[in-house]
């Protein structure tokens, strides 16, 4: 398969997530978050099956299914968790701990999955990892079906009305708008980084790079970030410290632009960026849990992914140089830091009036 065909398949996945995933992923608020999680397992399972066919049309269908499933993955599971957390009256700070542990677990699972995928690929061929994924998805669906209670957003509202409510919230609530911008701009840069770290390091290194060890290093860095998030929350709020995390992320992705031939500098910068990614995931989970309305949570989170998909499609579609791509990433991250600062400033102004009367009593 040619590089151009691979790029087309990538674009198809993000395009599918943009066009279809936004709608189907938003069904969770009306038809149930647990049901949507089960649909995720079915769609991604079918996408895995398509990898057995050396046919561009079938592979394209698989990418469409995978794109839709990805939208569900990043909205329905979190929406289910936040609803159940609030319903059961757990401490608000515990939500941050849950997201931090989830980010840590994701990194561990990614490392184990990478080793397992390589083992089955060596033994049975390159399609075997997708068969292993299918087994995991079946187990996940069985577990969700048997153990999770169902919950909803506004199940009585028509889907169109839910969309309109979510759009209205984004347009009228500065906190939600800024949160959506931060998520889209950071994740757009992150997904672009996923595609570009290999060429950046390969170009800077005289010898072939050890992809497996580098990926493992990235996952360890992400785990460090998720642990660091717990330390940061003991002395500050995500609204505050995420401003500096986003600025640090921008500085990291500027390194391949400034030092394009220094493999060591680029690798260290990429490791620090992955630490920032490890902080970002639980921080965004907490912020969404705080500011996104419950009745349209899944719909709003899926709408946040629209600019993200547009960013990645735009960069993939154009034949930009690697330097230009990282320049875009730095710009996106600086804009994300600005949006985060607006969110922080707005929250600070909202808290001050509440404290003033108490202060006047002393």
From TrEMBL:
GO molecular function: molybdate ion transmembrane transporter activity
Highest taxon of source: Eukaryota
Regions that span the bilayer: 6-25, 60-82, 94-117, 123-145, 213-232, 241-259, 265-287, 299-318, 324-344
Keywords in alphabetical order: Membrane, Transmembrane, Transmembrane helix
GO cellular component, as recorded: membrane
SUPFAM superfamilies registered for this protein in UniProt: MFS general substrate transporter (SSF103473)
Keyword Transmembrane: yes
PANTHER family hit by this protein: MOLYBDATE-ANION TRANSPORTER, SAM (S-ADENOSYL METHIONINE) TRANSPORTER
Identification of the protein by name: Transporter, major facilitator family protein
Species this protein is from: Ancylostoma caninum (Dog hookworm)
């Amino acid at each position: 398969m040619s590089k151009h065909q691979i790029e087309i398949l990538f674009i198809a996945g993000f395009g599918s997530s943009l066009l279809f995933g936004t709608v189907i992923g938003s069904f969770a608020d009306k038809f149930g978050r647990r049901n949507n999680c089960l649909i995720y397992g079915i769609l991604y399972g079918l996408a895995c099956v398509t990898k057995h066919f050396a046919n561009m049309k079938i592979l394209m269908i698989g990418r469409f299914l995978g794109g839709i499933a990805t939208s569900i993955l990043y909205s329905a599971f979190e929406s289910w968790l936040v609803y159940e957390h609030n319903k059961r009256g757990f401490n608000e700070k515990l939500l941050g701990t849950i997201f931090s542990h989830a980010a840590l677990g994701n990194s561990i699972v990614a490392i184990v999955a990478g080793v397992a995928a390589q083992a089955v690929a060596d033994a049975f061929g390159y399609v075997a990892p997708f068969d292993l994924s299918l087994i995991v998805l079946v187990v996940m669906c069985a577990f969700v079906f048997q153990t999770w209670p169902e919950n909803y957003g506004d199940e009585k509202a028509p889907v169109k009305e839910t969309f309109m409510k979510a759009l209205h919230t984004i347009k009228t609530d500065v906190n939600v708008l800024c949160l959506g911008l931060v998520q889209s701009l950071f994740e757009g840069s992150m997904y672009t980084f996923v595609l570009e770290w290999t060429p950046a390091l390969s170009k800077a290194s005289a010898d072939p790079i050890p992809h497996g060890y580098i990926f493992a290093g990235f996952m360890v860095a992400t785990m460090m970030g998720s642990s660091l998030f717990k330390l940061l929350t003991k002395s500050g709020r995500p609204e505050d410290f995420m401003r500096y995390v986003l600025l640090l992320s921008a500085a990291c992705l500027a390194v391949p632009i400034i030092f394009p031939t220094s493999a060591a500098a680029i690798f260290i910068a990429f490791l620090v960026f992955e630490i920032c990614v490890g902080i970002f995931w639980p921080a965004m989970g907490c912020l969404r849990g705080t500011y996104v309305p419950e009745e349209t949570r899944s719909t709003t989170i899926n709408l946040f992914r629209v600019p993200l998909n547009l960013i990645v499609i735009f960069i993939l579609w154009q034949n930009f140089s690697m330097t230009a791509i990282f320049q875009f990433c730095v710009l996106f991250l600086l804009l994300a830091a600005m949006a985060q600062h607006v969110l922080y400033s707005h929250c600070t102004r909202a808290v001050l009036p509440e404290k003033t009367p108490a202060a006047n009593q002393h």
